[in-house]
Amino acid sequence: MSQNSEWSASAAIWSTRTSLARLDNKWSALVVIALGRGSGLRFGDLRTLVEGVSAKVLTETLRDLERDGLVLRHAYAEVPPRVVYELTELGCTLHAPMRELGDWAERHAEEVLAAREAFDAAR
User: Fold this and answer.
1) Number of folded domains in the chain?
2) Which of 57, 110, 114, 116 is 20 to 30 A from 89 via CA?
3) Is residue 13 part of a domain?
């Protein structure tokens, strides 16, 4: 293998790792899926849709997704204050594959659980 192809492979791995780093936790993927299903969701709505997430973790997740250019945060100067979150154009391109992954997980949940049980029983 030439140095050029080694560099290209390393660059591809680095860019893939960098791009997917945000999705290394379940909350980011679930937030992207939830935001893709609704337009302009408030924090409380997101917290309801993403069952089990704490307010602190949801806040951190939204901030990280915003930092990566996947989520827009709109704060309105109203009383009481209103904040709405939505996917950016870049975030929308991620929604379809995340939704497909979520659909796959739902379709195969029983099979995965059965495989885990069989594996654990064999140990």
Assistant:
1) 1
2) 57
3) no
Per the domain annotation, does 109 fall within a domain?
Answer: yes
Helix (H) or strand (E) holding 86, with range, is: strand 82-87
3-state secondary structure (DSSP) of residue 38: coil
User: Which pTM does this prediction carry?
Assistant: 0.78
Beta pairing partners, 42 = 84
Q: How far is CA 92 from each of CA 5, 8, 9, 64, rounded to the nearest angstrom?
A: 32, 28, 27, 16
What is the DSSP code string of 102-121?
A: HHHHHHHHHHHHHHHHHHHH
Identity of residue 89: E
Name the token pair of 79. Answer: 């009383």
Q: Which domain holds residue 87?
A: 23-122
Asked if the structure places residue 114 within a domain, the reply is yes
What are 8-39's pLDDT values in tens digits? 667 667 767 777 776 778 899 999 999 998 77
pLDDT tens series, the chain, 123 aa: 555 555 566 766 776 777 777 677 889 999 999 999 877 999 999 999 999 999 999 999 999 999 999 999 999 999 988 999 999 999 999 999 988 988 999 999 999 999 999 999 998
